[in-house]
Amino acid sequence: MLKPKSSHFRMVSTLLAVAFFYSLVSVVHAHPFHLCVGQMRWNSESKLWEVSLRLHPQDLETAISKERYVNQPGKKISVDDEDFPDIAIEYLNRHFFLRSSPLAMNKDEFKEVLRSQAARKVGEELPKEHSSLKWVGKETERGWLWFHLELSQPTIEPEREKLWFVHRLLIDSVERQENTILIDPTFSKKFSLQFRSGEEFQEMKPSNKTVSSTNPS
């Protein structure tokens, strides 16, 4: 089992608190749903986002297999496969990323950008407006799978451009999937964003749907 490499991965209690919050909501409304919780922390030295994500390995295997082997029904990948890190990064770059746009672009216009991007072929080079991911490692915990990644965001000119956060992991393949990410810019207050079907992307900034901006213990 891989161990987290630095203190930026020590946020399990915070993420589980978020998951517990959603589990209470689920019980109250009697509609269970699946969760992916995670954290992104900016490293000012490396100029990278350090990312950890927690989800169900079976859900991820199903989602990747369905997308990758669309013409080979029944063929599946496993998180234990030797080439899984490369396969996972390809999938994650399609469904978990930051993308720059002109400052004036609205949500409907950005949605059209995403639709055109959906036609990108497996292995095709990412556009300069798109972030890229690097595999750090994975570990399991009581049936959950943790991903540890590094994300390189596109360079923007703040006076002319903005960043969008796209987090649609599992949303197309798992019913009632909801994703929550705690963002720690280090230079300003932490905030979290939530994503679900019909709301797979947001601007990379605090929103009125933020669950918590409390610092992790």
What would you note in describing this structure?
The protein has one domain (27-203). It is globular and about 50 Å long. It is built from four helices and nine strands. With 217 residues, it is an alpha+beta fold. 26% of the residues are buried. Helices cover 24% and strands 31% of the residues. A hairpin with a 6-residue loop joins strand 7 and strand 8.
List the helices and strands and how they pair.
Elements: H1 12-29, E1 34-43, E2 48-55, H2 57-68, H3 84-95, E3 96-102, H4 107-117, E4 132-141, E5 144-152, E6 161-167, E7 177-184, E8 191-196, E9 201-203
Parallel strand pairs: 1-7
Antiparallel strand pairs: 1-2, 2-5, 3-6, 4-5, 6-9, 7-8
Short description:
About 25% of the residues lie in helices and about 30% in strands. The chain has about 220 residues and is α+β, with helices and mostly antiparallel strands.
